[in-house]
Specification:
There is one protein chain. The chain is mainly beta. It contains six helices and 25 strands. A hairpin with a 2-residue loop joins strand 17 and strand 18. The two termini are 34 Å apart. The relative contact order is 0.25. This is DUF3443 domain-containing protein. Residues 45-59 have a biased composition (Low complexity). It comes from Paraburkholderia caffeinitolerans.
Length: 434
């Protein structure tokens, strides 16, 4: 599988479910959904540069320097970035999750679940669950098995909706719907699902055993899927796993794949993703902390000094980049690079496709504007992907960037998170802050 010439060995880009597109009625390019892009003025991107590029980062300013707290409290869990389960994808932050048959002690821990702040709900690859997946009760719609097609920028996931108790750190979301990816035969995939792009139904395709969507929405689709089958991401399969006649169906909110954090009994009003500062040259691994709740315990207070941005229901802002207004900007730990369009920066080409390979490292600027028309500037560094990935041993990279999606989008992926505490507030007035 490749994205715009970028092989899966290097990219897990733009991981926002297409489903939420319908909920917020915000159209983006094919595969870009749930969140979109905008962002602000650029410095250093005006002249074209040759592919390859220098890896000398001595001219770059130091990045943010916040250090994660220890993941010792019940509302915390360790986040790890390293060579990962497939051994070939940088910047995939992962946690361990325990899945239980609802209201029982029958449980199974699963490691290497990607932390994705721009999607909503837990999705587990069937092969990672093994025989345990069959013990999780199916969700049904009028007697038919409920399945889901979730669109991402690099393809789709297809599988049944099942119910489980989800335990992360010391927190538990009881009896919530999750998606089991790849437990239905490929012959059951509806054409309007496979039209999204290639299948992402395996560990190798995803680069992890699953996706933990902890963005600001409580469900992965919301009212649009609850009110109408038209455009719904959910399907009723009349003969269960052997059916090839799955049809779009409306699904009540309580049967939609749910954000586990929003269903914790406490510490459920948001999350803080804390990633450590790293070298501008990258490093082999990084260890951070995911904190549940904001202002609910002594370890998750939000300082008044942070930059806070009111977002729409998908976690989007607007802004400017390189002198042009953009429609949507978002902070997405599920993207392994910084993704934006800038014709003044040379693309690597070859095996690195549309990743950027500037002749010398750049410091770029953008402006983020929230729903209340409050703006603030952000800066980020871009170093040649060829130089960063040349050693093959570094998997934590804070200046990896590329071109992907519309010129109207700015995706501040995991590189933006290093050295920062990034807050995602849930509720009627969602926000991000850092």
């Amino acid at each position: 599988m490749s994205i715009h010439g970028i092989p899966s060995a290097f990219v897990r880009a733009l991981r926002e479910p297409r489903a939420f597109l319908f909920a917020v009625l915000f159209a983006l390019t094919a595969g870009l959904a749930a969140c979109g892009g905008g962002g602000g003025g650029s410095s250093g991107s005006g002249s074209s540069s040759s592919a390859g590029g220098s890896g000398d980062t001595s001219s770059l300013p130091a990045g943010p320097q916040q250090t994660p707290i220890a993941a010792t409290a019940s509302n915390t869990v360790v986040v790890t970035v390293n060579r990962g389960i497939t051994g070939n994808v940088p910047n995939i932050p992962t946690v361990s999750v325990t899945i239980c048959v609802p209201n029982t002690g029958t449980c199974q821990p699963i490691d290497n679940i990607q932390v994705d702040t721009a999607s909503f709900g837990l999705r587990l690859v069937a092969s990672a669950l093994g025989n345990f997946s069959s013990t999780l009760p199916l969700t049904t719609s009028n007697g038919a098995t409920l399945a889901e097609c979730t669109g991402f920028a690099d393809g789709y996931t297809w599988g049944t909706v099942r119910r489980a108790d989800v335990k992360i750190g010391g927190e538990t979301a009881s009896n919530i719907p999750i998606q089991v990816i790849g437990d239905l035969a490929s012959s059951t995939v509806p054409s309007n699902c496979s039209d999204i792009g290639p299948s992402q139904n395996s560990v190798q395709a995803i680069g992890a055993n699953g996706i933990l969507g902890i963005g600001i929405a409580p469900w992965d689709c919301g009212s649009s899927c609850a009110s109408s089958a038209q455009g719904s991401m959910y399907y009723a399969c009349p003969n269960g796993t052997i059916s090839s006649n799955c049809a779009n169906t409306a699904v009540a909110l309580n049967n939609q794949v749910a954000n586990p954090v929003a269903n914790f009994p406490g510490d459920n009003n948001g999350v803080i993703l804390q990633m450590p500062p790293i070298s501008n040259n990258g490093q082999a691994s990084a260890t951070g902390t995911l904190v549940f709740g904001i202002g609910t315990q002594s370890n998750n207070a939000i300082p008044t000094s942070v930059q806070r941005f009111a977002t729409d229901g998908g976690g989007n802002m607007t802004g400017t980049y390189n002198g042009r207004a953009l429609k949507s900007a978002f902070l997405d730990s599920g993207s392994n690079g910084l993704f934006f369009a800038d014709s003044g920066i040379a693309q690597c080409g070859g095996n690195l496709g549309t990743f950027y390979c500037p002749a010398k490292p750049l410091t770029l600027n953008a402006t983020l504007t929230d729903q209340n028309n409050v703006s603030a500037n952000v800066s980020f560094n871009v170093v040649s992907a060829a130089a960063l990935l040349n050693s093959g041993s570094n998997y934590a990279l804070n200046d990896l960037a590329g071109a992907f999606g519309s010129t109207a989008n700015l995706d501040l992926g995991l590189p933006f998170f290093y050295g920062r505490y990034v807050y995602y507030g849930y509720g009627q007035a969602p926000y991000v802050a850092f």
